[in-house]
Specification:
The protein has 363 residues and is of the alpha/beta class. The protein has a single domain, classed as Luciferase-like domain (TIM Barrel), CATH 3.20.20. The chain contains twelve helices and 13 strands. The strands form two sheets. Strands 1, 2, 3, 4, 5, 6, 9, 10, 11, 12 and 13 form an eleven-stranded parallel beta sheet that branches. Helix 9 packs antiparallel against helix 10 and helix 11 crosses helix 12. The radius of gyration is 20 Å and the shape is globular. One of its GO terms (cellular component) is cytosol.
């Protein structure tokens, strides 16, 4: 299938889909695909056919999400385990680009310390061209210690590589004939990344949780990516103030928050589904070597953060959006141990009974 026939978008730039940080008057909704492996992830029991089925059904879910009115799909990046099968988010997003025409396509996130920034800029530029300008660039330092440790990186290494990598990545995407003299990356001859993305500047969504990191995102004028929790209540204000002081005017449309949802016709049915998800998430995180303290942090994301009937989920999400001030919502819907039919039920119930009531919510 050719790129031109794979999408309904025309070559005219006016047909391109608005960026995620545009249209601040509405709430935008994204499906977050973590692609959790649903079989026995012991290496000797790995099932390639099952992995293919998970990938194919996730792509079909994304196609259905577009039909239901979602604004985009974000996908994760993880390494060194069989729990997820998404080490390369951009390969997955390229497949979605050929099956969709309106969804924004982003990474939550590219783990920048694990990448060559120049090579990543080329990959992002190519993905943006394939998708007719639909890429949302997401970057972060990575949160899982198992990944950092096995790459042989310390926390200081990660910080240094991320900061240098983000500088080179944004320059490579937005400038021509650049040189660079960094600790980890050097470009001695003036060089240019091709292909360049359609929409420049391609303002990245930068994952940040600590106050100083959030303020840095604001000062640099980038978009903010975080998680929906009571601890995040003051993050937007901190981000906006830092951005304003640096001469950048931003709003809740520049803040993407993430949670997971389980929706069923009744609260009790949703809670029963959640119990299976929580047990599976905990057992898997511990078995893969994650420290218990770290596993507790991620339980709400992988075990169901917002759970209940459509009305219950509507009330909780409305409260969460008003608490954080975010106007971009990233939803993990397909969780390990939950049959795909029940995950699709969650997506349909959200789109039909929750999304319309949140679209014009005032935050």
């Amino acid at each position: 299938m050719s790129v031109s026939s794979a999408t309904e978008a025309t070559e005219n730039s006016s047909a391109r889909v608005p960026r995620l940080d545009e249209e601040p008057e509405i709430i935008k909704f994204l499906r977050c695909d973590a692609l959790q492996y649903e079989g026995d992830w012991a290496p000797e029991k790995y099932d390639a056919d099952l992995a293919r089925e998970i990938l194919e059904s996730s792509i079909e879910d994304a196609v259905e999400a577009e039909r239901l009115g979602f604004d985009g799909v974000m996908t994760t990046e993880h390494h060194f385990d069989g729990w997820t099968i998404i080490p390369s988010p951009n390969v997955y997003l390229a497949a979605l680009a050929c099956r969709t025409s309106r969804l924004r396509l982003g990474q939550s996130v590219n783990i920048l310390p694990f990448h060559n920034p120049w090579r990543l800029a080329e990959e992002v530029g190519m993905l943006d061209i394939i998708s007719n300008g639909r890429v949302e660039l997401g970057v972060g330092k990575g949160n899982f210690s198992i990944e950092r440790d096995r790459y042989g990186l310390t926390l200081d290494d990660v910080d240094d590589r991320f900061n240098e990598g983000l500088e080179l990545l944004t320059r490579a995407l937005g400038e021509h004939s650049i040189t660079f003299d960094g600790k980890y990356n050097r470009i001695q001859e003036p060089s240019t990344v091709y292909p360049k993305p359609f929409g420049l500047p391609l303002r990245p969504w930068v994952a940040a949780l600590k106050p100083e990191s959030i303020e840095k995102v604001g000062r640099e004028g980038n978009n903010l990516y975080g998680f929906m929790s009571p601890a995040a209540a003051g993050d937007l204000q901190r981000y906006l103030e830092a951005a304003h002081e640096a001469g950048h005017e931003r709003s809740g449309a520049n803040y993407l928050t993430t949670t997971s949802i389980i929706i069923a016709p009744t609260d009790r049915e949703a809670e029963e589904i959640q119990e299976c998800a929580k047990v599976s998430a905990w057992e898997t995180m511990i078995a893969r070597g994650m420290p218990e303290a770290e596993a507790h942090v991620y339980m709400p994301l992988f075990g169901g953060g917002v759970v209940g009937s459509p009305q219950t989920v509507l009330d909780q999400l409305a409260g969460g959006l008003q608490m954080t001030g975010a106007r971009r919502l990233n939803l993990v819907i397909r969780l390990r141990s939950i049959p795909k039919e029940e995950s699709r039920q969650s997506m349909h119930l959200f789109a039909e009974e929750v999304m319309p009531h949140l679209r014009h919510l005032s935050t």
